[in-house]
């Protein structure tokens, strides 16, 4: 990770918040952040619009979500900002 980069800043922020919450909760090993979550830098307006659309339409697509334990075998496998055709 490059020093002074956005990723470096985010990592430091999450570390500081985790430390503070664990002290407040008095739980030194508490999980604070969602596992398998990743940050994504939005690089242009088209990408921003795709992500906004995803956020607005996602609740209606829950039955097809790969994280839904009741979803069938034909679940979605891509995030919208990874798609070239969006």
Explain the layout of strands and helices.
Elements: H1 6-25, H2 45-57
Structural write-up:
- The radius of gyration is 17 Å and the shape is flat.
- The chain folds into two domains: 1-39; 44-86, no CATH class.
- It has helices at 6-25, 45-57.
- The protein contains two helices and no strands.
- It is mostly helical and 86 residues long.
List keywords for this structure.
86 residues, mainly alpha, 2 helices
Radius of gyration: 17 Å
Low-confidence stretches: none
Supply the helix-strand structural class.
mainly alpha
Termini distance? 30 Å
* Strand-residue proportion: under 5%
Q: For the residues shown, what is the average pLDDT?
A: 82
N to C succession of SSEs? HH
- Number of strand elements: 0
What helical percentage do the residues reach?
25-40%
* Secondary structure tally, helices: 2
Q: Give the overall form.
A: flat
Biggest sheet details? none
Our count of domains comes out at 2
Concise synopsis of the structure shown:
With about 90 residues, the chain is mainly α.
């Amino acid at each position: 990770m490059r020093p002074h980069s956005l990723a470096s800043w985010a990592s430091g922020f999450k570390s500081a918040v985790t430390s503070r919450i664990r002290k407040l909760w008095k739980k030194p090993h508490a999980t604070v952040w969602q596992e398998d979550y990743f940050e994504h830098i939005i690089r242009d307006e088209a990408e921003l619009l795709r992500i906004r659309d995803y956020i607005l339409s996602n609740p209606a697509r829950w039955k097809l979500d790969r994280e839904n334990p009741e979803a069938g075998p034909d679940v979605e496998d891509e995030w919208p900002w990874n798609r070239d055709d969006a």
